[in-house]
Design brief:
heterodimer, A: globular, B: mainly alpha, 2 strands, about 60% helix, about 5% strand
């Protein structure tokens, strides 16, 4: 492992790789600062263009976009009260009131520092936890993998603020989409409609581009006349000693919360930032300041959402189970590039894994400097008119979907997925579970079949596998927890 | 009138929403029809001897997923009827409907030529969304697809499908 660490970090001395990470970081900040564009959408759009790149450069680019994009949502959250990404929604609550009273620079400085600390903390946890988890997962066989994938799917119940039942329904739809194509064990064609191109199944990249980019275009079309309050800013200021004294406990707590939430399969930066913010408020001595411009609120939300990025990479790399929507896309990129994340990746290509860790670490440091010196410039990106931005996003979506396999069917699939995603969002469904279900589908079905073949169809033999059993228990808790919580919350509200 | 028969809007009691107009019922009907169609599809899969598929037959996993989907749909309906939404959904603005139609029309124009479709889509959407600097719209709508075309063709070696305009270049 030490050799892997040295070789992986040594690879980062390659100037071309550093340039790729820098471009990814700049791209991530640009995308994160533009309301409506998210790092999930950006990574989905970019995957087809990374196919000609070296796999390490490709994944480093996507990881840098992920880290920087999560941070940059705070820029517009603070300056125009519109979160650049959903993970920055909690930052608006105190960031914009601070900006309104002339402290935009101080608010952005705190957001930048807290995000950087959160990001670096989580990458360090990633470096320690991922190899350990991979070592544990090395003993996994088909029953454990099936139970693990099921646990990942159960976490979809609480993936967004929406109804847990609807999230699970969307996850099942994703699994159903994953059954399209040739059955790997028998060669039987399923839902291919006689099209040879469908035999290999639905490529997930066009689906991901559709549900994240095209559906967002239609969502944006219904908010064209939104009026934006804009606050001007002179320069980003580093937090003062008093600010650090006030927020260091909050930042540390949010680092822990964000990393833990990120490690849980399917839970991402949005959930982490909301919990980080709530906990900052709960533990604060100045609760009355929250909502009126409390610097602890910004620190709590921003440290947590960036801590979730490294956390979310832990299950993605060690187990092949996505930790968030963006890591689901990154997992898809791994598969498209011919690399299967999981315990074997750590033993066969440790230098590759450590180079990704290093790339994330560098991206966190780079966005700190970009944020401190370029936030004012990036904030001007919001002046790009939607009338030019979204048609351009659509054109890139079509080209991205097409260029993957140079197939027009993928364009049809992308647009179909986009329309479906829009209808789903309109009726209160999250599209993230569709993405995760689609990516995990093959893992679930293949391992269930292998386990059943091994057990001669006897399901009770799962009980002989303690890790699988533990994961089943966690799955039940993951499924019932949010539903019980919904029920209790309704009863509480009714009182 | 029970609590479940009314929808509360801004503190006032609105007339009850008929059952068939409730979102949960509409979604459930759509899923029922979709599931029925998918289930029928699974019955058309080729059958293989059990020894070739010792775990699960190819049609069994999708069918199992359909049962789970229907079970969850039933749960959603029960939850939805027990706790109706406090605020009705706002109707979609006409711009969104027309934008969706333009997205679908893109597929039709794409069959004639992909880059013609890009230009038409770009110009139509920008003007629909209220852009009045039509010279800019036309310029960007034509130049951007052209840059993408040449960039992808030369740098990434992506060959685009032949159409009315692309054939002129490829020939």
């Amino acid at each position: 492992m030490v050799e892997g660490f040295v070789a992986g970090f040594g690879a980062l001395l390659d100037p071309y790789l550093l340039l790729v990470i820098f471009l990814g970081t700049v791209g991530g900040v640009v995308i994160g600062a533009l309301p409506g564009l998210s790092s999930t959408m950006a990574t989905a759009l970019l995957v087809p263009f990374t196919l000609t790149m070296d796999p390490l450069q490709a994944i480093a680019l996507l990881a840098a976009i992920y880290c920087a994009g999560t941070y940059a949502g705070a820029i517009t959250a603070i300056l125009i009260n519109t979160p650049g990404t959903s993970a920055a929604a909690a930052t608006c609550i105190d960031g914009f009131p601070m900006a309104q009273r002339g402290e935009a620079g101080r608010a952005l400085g705190m957001a930048t520092v807290a995000s950087t600390i959160g990001g670096i903390f989580s990458v360090i946890v990633l470096m320690v936890a991922a190899p350990s988890l991979a070592r544990l997962a090395y003993q996994f066989t088909a029953p454990e993998y099936f139970a693990l994938a099921l646990f990942g799917l159960s976490m979809l119940a609480s993936v967004s603020a929406g109804s847990s039942v609807k999230n699970l329904m969307a996850g099942v739809l994703g699994l159903l989409l994953a059954t399209v194509g040739m059955d790997l064990m028998t060669g039987v064609e399923r839902f291919t409609f006689g099209q040879a191109e469908m035999s290999e199944g639905i490529s997930f990249i066009p689906v991901l581009i559709g549900i994240f980019a095209v559906s967002e275009l239609l969502v944006q079309s219904s908010a064209l006349h939104r009026v934006v309050d804009r606050v001007t800013m002179t320069a980003v200021k580093l937090p003062s000693r008093a600010d650090y004294k006030k927020t260091w406990k909050t930042i540390l707590r949010s680092c822990g919360i964000g990393t833990f939430i990120g490690i849980l399969p399917a839970e991402g930066a949005t959930v982490a930032s909301l919990i980080g913010y709530n906990e900052a408020k709960r533990w604060s001595k100045n609760k009355e300041e929250f909502g009126k411009g409390a610097i602890e609120g910004i620190a709590g939300a921003e440290a947590a959402n960036n801590a979730a990025t490294g956390g979310a990479m832990v299950p993605t790399l060690a187990l092949g189970i996505p930790g968030s929507a963006t890591t689901a896309v990154i997992l898809g990129a791994f598969l498209v590039l011919g690399i299967r994340p999981g315990p074997h990746l750590f033993t066969e290509q440790p230098e590759f894994v450590f180079a990704i860790f290093g790339a994330m670490l560098i991206a966190n440091i780079m966005f700190f400097f970009l944020g401190m010196f370029g936030a004012k410039l990036f904030a001007r990106l919001t002046l790009i008119p939607n009338t030019f931005l979204w048609p351009s996003v659509f054109v890139l979506s079509v080209v991205g979907a097409y260029s993957l396999d140079q197939s027009m069917i993928d364009v049809w699939i992308m647009i179909g997925a986009g329309l479906l995603g829009f209808v789903m969002r309109r009726f209160g469904f999250s599209v993230v579970p569709v993405a995760i279900g689609l990516i995990l589908g093959e893992l679930v079905e293949t391992n269930l079949k292998r386990a059943l073949a091994r057990f001669d169809g006897d399901l009770t033999q799962f009980l002989d596998h303690p890790i699988a059993l533990l994961l089943f228990v966690l799955t039940i808790l993951g499924l019932c927890g949010p539903m019980m919580f919904d029920h209790l919350q309704r009863r509480w509200n009714a009182k | 009138m029970s609590d479940h028969d009314v929808t509360q809007r801004s503190g006032e009691f609105a007339p009850p929403v008929p059952l068939w107009r409730r979102d949960e019922i509409r979604i459930a009907v759509a899923i029922l029809v979709f599931s029925g169609w998918v289930f029928w599809m699974t019955t058309t899969f080729a059958r293989v001897p059990p020894r070739l598929s010792p775990g699960l037959m190819p049609h069994e996993f999708p069918q199992f997923l359909l049962y789970v989907l229907l079970g969850l749909t039933a749960l959603m309906v029960v939850q939805g009827l027990a706790h109706p939404a406090e605020r009705p959904r706002t109707p979609l603005p006409w711009v969104t409907w027309v934008s969706a139609v333009i997205v679908v029309l893109f597929l039709a124009v794409m069959e004639i030529d992909l880059f013609l479709a890009f230009a038409v889509f770009f110009i139509a959407l920008a003007l629909l969304w209220g852009e009045r600097r039509w010279q800019w719209v036309v310029a960007v709508g034509v130049v951007m697809p052209a840059i993408i075309f040449f960039g992808f063709d030369h740098i990434l070696e992506v060959r685009f499908p032949r159409g009315l305009l692309t054939s002129l270049y490829y020939d």
